[in-house]
Write a structure and sequence with these properties.
There is one protein chain. With 568 residues, the chain is an alpha+beta fold. It folds into 2 domains: 183 residues, Penicillin-binding protein 2a (Domain 2) (Alpha-Beta Complex); 314 residues, Beta-lactamase (3-Layer(aba) Sandwich), CATH 3.40.710.10. The chain has 18 helices and 24 strands. The strands form 8 sheets. Strands 1, 2, 3, 4, 9, 19 and 20 form a 7-stranded mixed beta sheet that branches. Strands 11-10-24-23-22 form a 5-stranded antiparallel beta sheet, with helices on both faces. Helix 1 crosses helix 2, helix 11 packs parallel to helix 13 and helix 13 packs across helix 15. The longest helix is centred in the first third of the chain and has 33 residues. The chain is elongated, with a radius of gyration of 33 Å. It starts with a helix and ends in a 7-residue tail after the last helix.
Amino acid sequence: MKRHFGNWRFYAVFLLAAIATGVIIIRLFCLQVLQHGSYTALAKDQHELLQQLIPRRGEIFIQEKGDTWHPLAVNRSYQTAFLVPREVADKEELAQNISPLVGIAADKILEKLADPNDPYEPLKSKLDDETAQKIRELDLKGVYLINEGWRWYPQGNLASNVLGFVGMSEEQKIGQYGLEQYYENELAGQSGFLKSEKDALGRWLLMQDYNLEPAKDGANLYLTLDQNIQYVVEQKLKEVAEKWAIADGCAIVMDPQSGAIRAMASWPDFNPNEYQKVEHINDFMNSCTQKTYEPGSVFKPIVMAAGLDTGKISPETIYTDTGSVQISGYTIKNALEKVYGVSTMTKVLENSINTGAIFAERATGNDNFKKYSEAFGFDSKTGVDLAGEAVGNLNNLKTNREINFATASFGQGISVTSLEMASAISAIANDGKLMKPYLVEKSVDPDGQEKLTQPQLIRNIISPKTAGQLTAMLVSTVRNGYDKIKLTGYFVAGKTGTAQISLEGKVGYSDDTNHSFAGYAPAYNPKFLIFLMIGKPKGVQFASGTLAPLFAEIARYLLDYYEIPPEE
């Protein structure tokens, strides 16, 4: 009887094991064969839900004469690979086969496949067409390809330092540098949200009821930049950069009456589609707004503006130059140690006489000079709609040292940004009105609502009379001082600047220089202002040799482009 009872127990255990095995086989058959489509659909549904939760980024457009728009930053569809781990039978084989195609180590792929119940696991984004096709040809069970939107810059390097780029930060796409960063909230839109019950492992139970709030797409931006002007300015700046082997450079074209920026070029530039290939982070910087430098003689119109507006000097005020000035034990000389003798204030600008600028500053008074320098905006941000704007430094004018005011009168010992300098000279061109510079002409929400940017007056700095007098002095400066800027039939106002670069961490100056040029035309009813700056040009001493010709080339183009008739 005991033997018979033992056999019964054996058969009972065997029967239970067989039943359990059968249940498992049937369950696997149901999951992998009968319900294969359901789980694939679940994975795809989950991805579709994710797409509904992620907003479409707003796009950026550049204009052509204000009535035609061209794309600068758009959303392009790329292939993205994802895994459905529960469908993968041989995880090791899949990881080895797909690893070289996606550039992910096999062990990392195995980690993504570790959870056999996981219905969705992202693998690789932004695949090129060739790689996507190779993945299709492998026909691997549990590997899928879907379309996903990424940023694309169809015009490559054009306005790259203005645009910035969209990169990855903590697995999130986010705007970095330039407009992409400054307008991140407007461009990115608002993410949607999903309310749903979750299982014990924290996964959504999408087969049950859930509450989905779709994403709100970002707004499109339409820029003040003109595509043709931007292209020409960039090409001209590149030619100068290569000719004189400069370290960096900036070129700005503005409408002085509104503050709208028609072109802003920075050197070096980069291709935002390949920002990962940029070796030096400084290449992402916008030299026009993120670099400060000592401006040199291009600053002399500012001291003249202060003196004229306070009535301390006039264009005809006489000054006798002896070639040098003694101040607090320092000797300040003119460039090339020239002596000009009897000169008017107009001649001081024409010949860029350092000692004459000192005379004008002393006549104006330190307090007045400091007040007007601040009013022109050299110690505050312009407020331009770009990320990371730097600010100039007028700290030397906050001391009581006479030498600091003397050197500042001809643009040394203080620092500015190119945009600060361009805005200040624009104020002179605009009857003394300082306008806020801007790059976005309008934004358009997904529902079609437009938000136009209105020109914004920051402050009145000098009187229209002073502005007119100074403009006439700058016209005379161009006509009598720069042989390379002869625009027949037009009155052009302008001034160069050549400044020594201070030694890093030491007192004194190096042999390297920064060159600047500011000019506007037609001088008495200006349609445009051009500001140029290059750093450390090689083999040339003065800005009149590097930037005066560049200004003339761009100005001639703009006069033709805007179809401005000759004035005389």
